[in-house]
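dumping these here so i dont lose them again. two proteins, back to back, each one seq then structure tokens. dont judge the mess
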Amino acid sequence: MTSTAAFGPGAIALSVAVAPPDEGGGVIDVKVASTRPVGFSTALFVNRPADEIPALVGRLHALCGLSHTAAAAMAIAAARGRDASAEAAARFDGLLAERLGEHLRSTFLGPAGAPPGEVPRDMLADLRVVLAATRELVTAAGRTPANEPHRDAIERARAAVSRLGPALDATGALRLPPASWAAGVAERFGPASGDVHLDADPLTGADDTTIVAALAADPTGFAAHPRFSGRRPETGPLARAAARGPIEAGRRLDARLAEIAAAVDLLAAPAAARRRALADWVDAVAIDGHTGCAAVESPRGRLHHLVRLDGIGRVAFYAILAPTEWNFGPDGPFAATIRANRPTADEAGRARVERIAAAFDPCVGFAVTVEERQRA
């Protein structure tokens, strides 16, 4: 059965082949076909002045654009032998706002959300309030030294998120008030859905040394198909939560809701608290006198940019490794999770694959096909 979701340039097709019931069912194959351009960053950026790249890369990425802008600015600073932390600090409020907005949008519009006609008007109004506030903060990122000029936007977003439900208690645990939008989403998408989720092997900053070396050795190939021998790394909210401590794999959506609450709380926190948190979000390293790499914890996971400059400050090479390449690799976490779920070739099976794909939240659109196939 095939999804009716749009599939165009810059999307991924998720094809699942399952055995017929008389052969015991089960997944025979999971394929991820992508129309996302590979190596476009080098083709577009080479020979351009490095100072043009952060704004350009942000415009090219409709989702997580500020995360890409920050990663580019940090990588270029590192390639020049400069401290990249100032580039990150200037954009941190925007990064917080971007995570808040992207997580809310993905959850409202994805399979976990209720159909639009079933969402009360006040909840839709709160979503619009948050998205408007986050756009203001993302647009202002890098232009103001702190969030004080945008305190009204932050307070509007905070009040709207509070009405939607996700909140953290004093210990940092997620709390979802009964009958709230967030509680309803968690109920539909959590254990009651019957979906099986596997424990995450988190991709963290401890992996950056290996990633930087692999990108430097094979920028285009590794960026298109990242892999670690003996591991199946995952990145994103569940992986970030798992890196901090034990979390049930079935609470994948809860991890996203917790990040919504944490982001809005941190936006409203004193500047000193945001400065302390920044180190967990970004990192940058100089590889040699002309090459730098940066990592940013974007909404969808750990994002890497590598840039090599020539002798006059122009881009000689550029590579981007997006979180989606880890999560939707040929034998990545998504494929392994689908195999564990044993979907059927009917509407229920297709819906299950769609829910799981949305839980991993790829940075492009996706289309799902589930078809029966005889075992060889």
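---- next one ----
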Amino acid sequence: MARITAGLTTSHIPAIGAAIDLGKTQEPYWKPLFEGYDWTKSWAKENVPDVVILVYNDHASAFTPELVPTFALGCADEFKPADEGYGPRPVPVVHGDPDLAAHLAESLILDEFDLTLMYKLDVDHGLTVPLSLVYGQPDEWPVKVIPLAVNVVQYPPPTGHRCLRLGQAIRRAVQSYGEDLTVHVWGTGGMSHQLQGPRAGFINSEFDTAFLNRLVKDPEGLAKIPHIEYVREAGSEGIELVMQLIMRGAMGPEAEELYRFYHVPGSNTAVGHIVLRPADA
């Protein structure tokens, strides 16, 4: 039986990828941010899963503003880094697990989640920056990755409740897979931030901290937050936080917090990161 043994959340700020790619990680501005991932890098070397189900959002790279699926599952053998307007990031091609992805697609659709199945998908910084933060700059990524893209770009995005339930359905799907695999689930995006308008640069550290606390201890209550509260308290791009609830749902009812890091600023946003272990892992 396949099993989920860990989950993590992290911001996926594009400037982080640029800092890594341009060799700026030790500059005074960036050094404290990257040091916050040292624990996770060490932990990840000792806890390498067979597959990571990586929840992220596309930034008009694979999907245009005219066509944005609510949930899109990557079912291909590989996923190339996307050209985001200045060329693709110099990172390895992401290798998928089409067999597990096919099982997830069947299980989740029969569980009444309407997925878009992607057999060709270029992945942007939303997916590659988290991989770089955890695994550095390898010649090949040490894990297979199944991308799960979530619409948090065009209104209306899915609710926190729907995302938590999707995570729970992913847990059931993984546990019903016959092959002996270890799986991690990553929920990326956030924390509070706004990229435009009068509140550009908005960061709400109090809300971010409360969100992370409730993500661990009160996911059901957290899932009830309406869209307007995310906009008000976390900025217009803070809605990305609902993707972290997919990860949390996949952990089961109880989860142990192994590590947490929070830093302001990372570019014009807050950086939030947490590592969890399911109680039954």
